[in-house]
Design a protein that fits this description.
The structure is a homodimer. Helices cover 40% and strands 17% of the residues of chain A. Chain A is of the alpha/beta class. In chain A, helix 7 crosses helix 9 (187-198). The first copy, chain A, starts with a helix and ends in an 8-residue tail after the last helix. The mean pLDDT of chain A is 94. The A-B interface holds A 3-4, 7-8, 11-12, 15, 57, 60, 134, 178, 187-188, 191, 195, 201-205, 209, 212-214, 220-221, 223, 236-237, 239-240, 243-248, 262, 265-266, 269 and B 3-4, 7-8, 11-12, 15, 57, 60, 134, 178, 187-188, 191, 195, 201-205, 209, 212-214, 220-221, 223, 236-237, 239-240, 243-248, 262, 265-266, 269.
């Protein structure tokens, strides 16, 4: 019976931990406070019998996307998508030549586009994100994301997701966590590629959305995307999106800007062991360095309160050996 | 090495199939077309190498709740909750004595309440479902559901969930399916007990909702429930709720009324192997018998089209040996 138990133990170990369990987790994280805080938190919530133990069902971790899992500079990836889409659709819209913000955009004058303000951006988003079915939009995004390249690096956007964060997602999942994205970006803009790139299935993606309608086209039922805002999953919208989709409070939250403040606050003010982490963009050479003064991904209030609230800071320049999935 | 492989095989078998795998699935279902259709569908999508095989990630099954997983007669359980709640709150609302529909309700005159129409019901729902935080509402529902009893049977409502459907939920999950509830009922009314009773976690519950607001109360962040409709997850709302929460089309749908028509249609009109099933309430002795003429859970259009659309019918009287979880 001795050998039986031995074999059972080995098999159980292999089945539950995988063959590569010997590798130390988070290999592209430098030793330091951030990495150690992650290890300590995971050890606490997974230690059976400990008062800090959290059952697997409650191990919910939420991740912002833009600036937390991939870059948001010089502009949000989804905005690049919308701009490309206007150019693609322009031949079908001759009226855009005389109509702002499309006229400036098509002339390449982004400064003039941005000067038109939020209403103009909303018009661009609706013109490029609404009118088609959900299945058509899925195809449009899938096609774009597999070919479009970042203006600075020349890489595919999905090659620029942060390798240390991919390791963190895997590490948490290997420890029984269910990982969710909670982004201000469009929910249907992330779903077509998030499973392949992040290992996160569509039902674990939360984001902003437009309204939809169920109807028949060519005698088949379809869901049509309407040019009307449904939900903004940013700032105080993030806890509401979490409650609507997940229905329980996460125990760990990961963000990078003041847009994540309420998500971090909601997550870390629950009872028991909690974890908050902010990715601080400090690496002007390998990525970008920005915080309080940036119009994209401004990090100000959350940076001020990180220490008093016990939120951990990742210093990208010093904490990460490698930045991108594909260097 | 022979004994090593033997032991490994046994351990793998035990770990993957469970100790009770020898039992035939769906034991409280009588042999018949409905049970056979379920077996055939599951065999088809799980047979590796077959053209009808569906990867585990895409094995999404959606279940209506009222009338599909538990009774909806003589009125929706959530309406009983709302009525009980009005009685509980009445001492704090002396003005209700002179204000309809509360006055009639408190006198026990349900006929007069219902005569006031939908606006009156909405007023009752908002008075009992809004104003508190999400955590308070969770506690209120949890307390009620563990004590309130069905007027006819005297059982707890959760004792009246249909045993054959519990077996079906387990059977699908054992075959790699992810099971979701997609109900016209309130999303936060189901979440407090659905994991315990159905084995379905909060993040896999989709339902109707009211708007919410993130704010601070007693220096702690809370999510407050507002007396304003957010989303009605019924009829053509069901495919939209599915898209919003799950982000992909299910391959199996289970309902019982015309309120499930579009969910069944959306699910079964996708490509590949699909499954639709309608629970037909045919058992006046053990449960209730109703369909085309019922104001609650009317089944008319979906019954007419079931055959042409290939949707399976469960005849509760003949297909189910036992109805309730607790007889």
């Amino acid at each position: 019976m001795h050998s039986f138990h031995f074999v059972v133990s080995i098999v159980v170990l292999l089945l539950t931990r995988g063959w590569g369990a010997a590798q130390v987790p988070l290999p592209t994280w430098n030793e330091g406070a951030a990495r150690q805080a992650i290890f300590d938190f995971v050890a606490k919530v997974t230690e059976k019998g400990s008062p800090s133990f959290v059952p697997i069902a409650d191990r919910i971790a939420v991740f912002d996307n833009d600036g937390t899992l991939w870059p948001e500079q010089p502009m949000y990836v989804q905005l690049s998508f919308a701009l490309d889409r206007v150019k693609t659709l322009a031949p079908q819209h001759p009226e855009w030549k005389d109509h702002e913000p499309f006229a400036s955009l098509l002339k390449g004058d982004m400064k003039a586009v941005l000067a038109e303000g939020e209403r103009a951006l909303a018009e661009i988003v609706m013109a490029t994100h609404a009118g088609m079915t959900t299945e058509e939009f899925d195809r449009i995004v899938s096609d774009w994301i597999t070919t479009a390249r970042h203006p600075k690096s020349g890489k595919l956007y999905t090659e620029m997701v942060y390798l240390p964060m991919l390791e963190l997602l895997s590490y948490l999942r290997n420890n029984g966590f269910k990982t969710f994205i909670v982004s201000g970006g469009g929910i249907e803009f992330m779903r077509p590629w998030a499973l392949r790139v992040y290992g996160i299935p569509p039902e674990q993606i939360i984001g902003s959305s437009i309204k939809t309608r169920y109807e028949r086209r060519n005698d088949r039922p379809v869901i049509v995307r309407l040019p009307e805002l449904n939900f903004v999953d940013d700032k105080s919208g993030k806890p509401l999106g979490i409650q609507q989709h997940i229905g329980r409070r996460p125990i760990a939250a990961f963000g990078n800007s003041d847009g994540d403040f309420e998500m971090l606050e909601w997550t870390t003010s629950g009872n028991g062991t909690r974890f908050g982490l902010i990715v601080h963009h400090t690496d002007a050479d390998r990525e970008w360095a920005y915080d309080r003064q940036s119009s994209v991904g401004r990090l100000d209030k959350a940076l001020d309160q990180a220490k008093s609230r016990g939120w951990n800071l990742v210093d990208m320049k010093h904490d990460w050996k490698i930045i991108y999935r594909v260097e």
